[in-house]
Amino acid sequence: MNNGDVKRLSRLSAITTQLQTKSLVTATELAERFSVSVRTIYRDIRALESSGVPIYTQEGKGYRLVEGYRLPPIMFTENEANALVMVEQLVLHNKDASLVKYYSDAIDKIKASLNSDNKAKVNLLSERTQFSQMKAQEKNSDNLSILQQALTNFFLVDIAYKDESAQPTSRRIEPFALLNTRNGWILVAWCRLRQDFRNFRLDRIQTLDLLTETFTPHDMTLEDYFRRYAE
Question: For an engineered disulfide with 202, which of 94, 101, 141, 224 has Cβ 3.0 to 4.6 Å away?
Answer without folding.
Answer: 141
